[in-house]
Amino acid sequence: MTDAIEDVESFRLRARTWIRANLRPLEPHETLAPTLALPVQTEEEELAALARERELQRMIFDAGLAGIGFPREYGGQGLTTDHQRAFNAEIVGYEYPARLQAPTFSPCGAVLLDFGTEEQKRRHIPAILKGEEIWMQLLSEPSGGSDVAAALTSAVRDGDDWILNGSKVWTTGASTADWGLCLARTNWDVPKHRGLTVFILPIHQPGIEVHRIEMLNGSTEFCQEFLTDVRVPDSDRIGDVDGGWTVGTRWMFHERMLFNSPFVSIPVGTSPGEVGAASIVNVARDTGRFDDRCVRDLLGEAHMLELVGQTLRRRIGRGVAAGRISEQSAAITRLFAGVSSARKATIAFEIAGPAGAAWTADDGAAASCGDDFLMRQTSCIGGGTTEMARNVISERVLGMPRERTPDRDRPFRDVPRSASNRA
Amino acid sequence: MLLELSSDQEIFRDTTARFLTSRVPISEVRSLRNHPAGFEPDYWREGAELGWTSLLVSEEHGGGSVSGGGLVDLTTIAHEFGVHAAPGPLVPTNVVAGTLSTFGGEAHRPVLESLLAGTSVAAWCFGPAVDTDGRGPAGPRCRIADGEVVLDGVQRPVEAAGQAHHILVTARAEGGLTQILVPTDTAGVSIEPMRTADLTRRFAAVTFDGVRLPVEALVGEPGDADELLEYQLQLAVVIGNAEAVGALQTAFDMTLQWAFDRYSFGRPLASYQELKHRFADQKTWLEACHAVNDAAAAAVDDRSPDAKELVSAAKAFIGDYGSELVQDCVQIHGGIGVTFEHDLHLYLRRVTVNRALYGTPADHRQRISTVLENRKERV
Fold first, then answer.
1. Smallest Cβ distance to B3: which of A311, A319, A390?
2. Which residues of A touch B271 (CB under 8 A)?
3. CB–CB of B280 and A282 under 8 A?
């Protein structure tokens, strides 16, 4: 037994051979249209799709290809981001467990790996990698938006347990998830960043009520949860009491690094939650406008943005991994992705022409462009707004003066809050 | 430029950086404004000794790369040219040297040797490699008969044509695109200097009027220069981009420092959120410019199938976003930013001229759409 890890090319070949022999190639229609939001599905369809994904993940686990960046002792492969990137190239055009990747493997799995106790890691990471546990993030709150550290969900100590009360929002997959990673306030008498603690908890329990949120395009993927006297044992605490912001910072780093993560499989050339340039080409084909010089200019721009985004993610990912630039630089890729995705949605809508206003199934890839345009700003809002990214880049990367923060040095209970959240 | 250079690459880059700092400080660059060539011959010769012209040339011919990827290595030099707004025909000389080493044969060996030694520079006529929508002249034409090539036509703008001993020309022949190495003192060649937005680089309109040369002047197979021209275009774009990115880096660094130093209404510019957010955008574009051009350079070195689209994506992106970045640097400086006294315009000029050369951003977006169209299968 040596410490040398499998080289990237032999891993690539091993992955390729297995994928081709075991996974179903996608039908053209399955990757046809630009898809901004997740498809509108009934709950039955959603559960069936998820059951299939759990099955696929188990197959991948049994093949020795699951959890590429997770250590071997927790059921992973102990390999690198380069191996993950090779896998991402090989998985293109095949069915794979897309929904399990984020937030289950990262940020949730990655945070467990960073801060979990040995017992927590042994209990959950192998289960995650086998497709047995699906996780969700209980991070944002109705009162908070981008100000995540201003969490109002409280955790109060009760013997060996904690009692949680509050509400979380913009969660995905709450009706199908098994476990959640939750940021809660444990101390109101210190400044906001110093009174937070992270917990893990099973989602399906009486104290958690889940409401679906209908988005303007009909998707009901996002949920809001209400936590009422939810009891969590202290052994399910992640990191130190009142040390939640240390965990939270890393949590959000993993979130921003999803596209350059050793934990997450994302087929090369696809950007979940974005209108992909390749699908915009299909819009041009399906509307018969490929020969229009103006349309070709727009197609060139969309593909340019995609290539630049990919190379930027790689540069920042490698720079952070090598310690050449700070982890805060992840905000650079977040800002670029948000703005360029919005631009690509506009390009797709422009090329679709009148089919962006009214369409039938016969309009092919052009059919969803109107809805996608309505949802355009989601790429600049979800996962931390682009305004937040600009603050991080200017203040944390470039060292420019911080904005005035009246909440920084006073007990959180004395910090002014929105009218709707005043006690 | 790459965030991580190898130690050899770093020494190589740093040697040129120190040379440029001492030989062409910004004050010197300004005074070269009226110099007919834009640079002194010994400046170029000493630069050639530092490896400026040898990276795309094979070891067998006296060249060689630092890392195995000659173009990636060359981008570190080009980056320093941009950082220092340095003079000298880096793009055309390297394109010609690389071409002669790979396709030139024995007949062109002495020219290659003089380029390597830095005792002469070369010009390269950017031919019809980019579909420019019918704009501009159609480019030169040639006939090959009785052991002779006869060349007619006009090409403009041609960098360093007035300083070069040789011009590599792409002409249309009956059989297709053909390349010819033309000594600038050949009868029928006339070179008319043009005005330019750059201070130290020189451009000319070159007219070929019944220029007769022996067939030994041909480079590569006559009628078969399409791929060669495409490769040369990729080289030229990547080198020019790297230079533009170096200029952008300096302009950005200067402007960020200015934002800390300049006070207005009792507080530094850097404390205004509106400006902070613009700096965040600039920083993002700047990193993206580095990233896409480094990826393009590596793809060209590796002869990767995605080289063409990456090169054009880099040119289109750096052209458009780089221009916005440097113009926003001017805006943040205010009036001082558009004076000759301030250094900012030296970088503005470099970025601006490079944007317009070797295909505009719009031309390269068309090239990208052609790549997409040629992908048969739906994705």
1. A319
2. 400-401
3. no
Percent of chain A past pLDDT 70, that is, above it, reads: 94
Domain B226-374 carries which CATH code?
Answer: 1.20.140.10
Residue to mutate among A308, A328, A347, A390, with most B CBs inside 10 A, is A308
On whether any CB of chain A is under 8 Å from the CB of B290, the answer is yes
Label each residue of chain A as H, E or C.
Answer: CCCCCCCHHHHHHHHHHHHHHHCCECCHHHHCCCCCCCCCCCHHHHHHHHHHHHHHHHHHHHCCCCCCCCCHHHCCCCCCHHHHHHHHHHCCCECCCHHHHHHHHHHHHHHHHHHCCHHHHHHHHHHHHCCCCCEEEECCCCCCCCCHHHCCCEEEEECCEEEEEEEEEEEECCCCCCEEEEEEECCCCCCHHHCEEEEEEECCCCCEEEEECCCCCCCCCEEEEEEEEEEEEHHHEECCCCCHHHHHHHHHHHHHCHHHCCCCCCCCCCCCCCCCHHHHHHHHHHCCCCCCHHHHHHHHHHHHHHHHHHHHHHHHHHHHHCCCCCHHHHHHHHHHHHHHHHHHHHHHHHHHHHHHCCCCHHHHHHHHHHHHHHCCCHHHHCCCCHHHHHHHHHHHHCCCCCCCCCCCCCCHHHCCCCHHHCC
Place domain B7-121 in its CATH homologous superfamily.
Answer: Acyl-CoA dehydrogenase/oxidase, N-terminal domain (1.10.540.10)
The pLDDT tens digits of the residues spanning A125-146 come to 999 999 999 999 999 999 877 7
* pLDDT tens digits for range A80-114: 999 999 999 999 889 999 888 989 999 999 999 99
CATH label, B123-219, candidates 1.10.357.10, 2.30.110.10, 3.40.50.11540, 2.40.110.10 = 2.40.110.10
